[in-house]
Design brief:
It is a single chain. This protein has one domain. The chain starts with a helix and ends with a helix. It contains five helices and two strands; from the N terminus they run ααααββα. By secondary structure, it is mostly helical. The protein has a two-stranded antiparallel sheet. The chain is elongated, with a radius of gyration of 23 Å. One of its GO terms (biological process) is signal transduction. It is found in: Cell membrane.
């Protein structure tokens, strides 16, 4: 796992940052009142395809790997290794290693799993709403006369 984290670490942090910012801006662009149906459709299509790529290519496979690794200790224990004639040291070592769990991190900062994917979507929507509220506030201040 250390080698996987080292190889993909920087690339994943950059990818997460780029995806977060661009999809947030696309969501905002689709909700602008002056956008036409073509701009709306492009923004929704881009946001949907970006989310699909992000979740299906990164978050779901890593979560599946984590779930399978978490089952190792349980499966090894259920094999009735204690009835075996071989030494049980290697089996007990497998049980101990299976309880450690697997974590794939982007940049050593963000763990990649399904929870991170959902938090990323939540953050994108929050940023989009923040931009929308700033836009509404700026429109209101432009329409009020200065006294």
């Amino acid at each position: 796992m250390r080698q996987i984290n080292q190889v993909f670490s920087i690339r994943l942090v950059l990818f997460f940052g780029i995806i977060l910012i661009t999809m947030c801006l696309e969501m905002y662009r689709s909700t602008c009142p002056d956008s036409d149906w073509k701009t709306f459709a492009e923004s929704i299509l881009y946001t949907t395809s970006g989310l699909y790529e992000f979740l299906s290519c990164y978050c779901f496979p890593v979560q599946f790997l984590i779930n399978q690794a978490d089952k190792v200790a349980e499966i090894v224990y259920q094999t009735k290794w204690y009835k075996s004639k071989h030494k049980a040291q290697s089996v007990s070592l497998m049980i101990l290693l299976g309880q450690r769990g697997i974590k794939i991190a982007a940049g050593g900062v963000v763990n990649i799993d399904f929870i991170t994917g959902l938090n990323t979507v939540k953050t994108m929507v929050s940023y989009c709403m923040f931009l929308k509220s700033i836009d509404i506030d700026s429109e209101e201040s432009q329409t009020k006369p200065f006294l």
